Amino acid sequence: MRSKNTDSFFPNSWYRVATSAELLAKKVIPLHYFGKDLVLFHTETGIPCILDAHCPHLGAHLGYGGKVKDKTIRCPYHGWLWDHQGYCAGIPYSEKVPQVKIANYPVMEVNGLILMYHHQRDESPTWKIPQLAEYDSKQWTPLRLVRKWIAHTDLRNYLDNSVDVSHLYQVHSQTFKAAKSDVVEIDGPVLTHKMSQKYNLSSLSSGGLISEDGSVTTTYYGVGYDVSFYRTKGTLELSLLQIFTGTPIDNNRLEIQIFFSVKKALPSPLNQLLALMLRKDTVTTFEQDIPILENKIYPSHPLLLEEDGPIGQCRRWASQFYQ
Ligand code: FES
Ligand SMILES: [Fe+2]
User: Fold this and answer.
1) Whose CA is closest to atom 1 on ligand 1?
2) Strands in 34-158 per DSSP E
3) How far is the CA of 74 from the centre of ligand 1 (A)?
4) Per-residue model confidence as pLDDT tens digits over 105-133
5) Whole-model pTM?
6) What's the pLDDT tens digit per position in 275-300?
7) Domains of the chain from N-terminus onward
8) I need a labelling partner for 315 at 20 to 30 A (CA). Which of 137, 160, 291, 293 fits?
9) What is the number of helices (H) and of strands (E) in the chain?
């Protein structure tokens, strides 16, 4: 049995580090993830970039007072310019341009999120996170942040919890009456898990308008980003989309942000009400998990039953990101 928080290895994966809206509003954002100080900025040509935060000249943090100038970021201390790949692009008081480079990291922008690729040996990504058709669809409410949490846990425990089927009706009985894992499909860095669930919709389902029977399909793209589609059956079909993102701050802290969108199945005010209810339920549900995650250990040989869901299978799939 291995206790948690002893692992200094952050898995190789894409991770959410900001939203597109935050970056547009601020242009330069100091970040601290994977135990490192970083700076995220958006060049005037619209490219999001991430560099190590500290200027090699005399160590200033580019994220605090750095300014975007064309394709570069200007250090707040002596004004040295650094381009989007981290190369020195000019010094305001010298003709010399030293051949120095700040470490840079792969960045992508998709579904309203800015994602950074972290690799233990700085290798380039061989896969990307796909665009969601629902993201720009008029049939779905705009994707919004539910809430942000910083939890004292790590990605291994977080992922176990995500595919853990029996805890759904044990811990979250206000939402789930039953749950069953139907199928797991694995395609390289992508794992898809389909479940059938019986929701606890007592007030909503009266009259049989909404059925309590539903399904959820969760697709994991690496270990820091997954997309779930929840659907209920019945005359009125409710569909909810959630994106869960977990980004390690350091060995002991994981920053979790959940985003959601609902399919506009009802007239506008009712849709908003439904979205609010589902959002509240997401908060309640996830906050029930936090004290468990923060105090549990990570057994390497857990005593798993079939009803617990594909925890072992998911761990084997996830091991590819720890190589
Ligand atoms: S510390 Fe950045 S220009 Fe001097
Ligand atoms: Fe949970």
Assistant:
1) 58
2) 36-42, 48-52, 67-69, 72-74, 81-83, 88-90, 104-105, 107-110, 113-118, 144-151
3) 9
4) 999 999 999 999 999 999 999 999 999 99
5) 0.94
6) 888 889 899 999 999 999 999 999 99
7) 13-118 (2.102.10.10), 133-322 (3.90.380.10)
8) 291
9) 5, 18
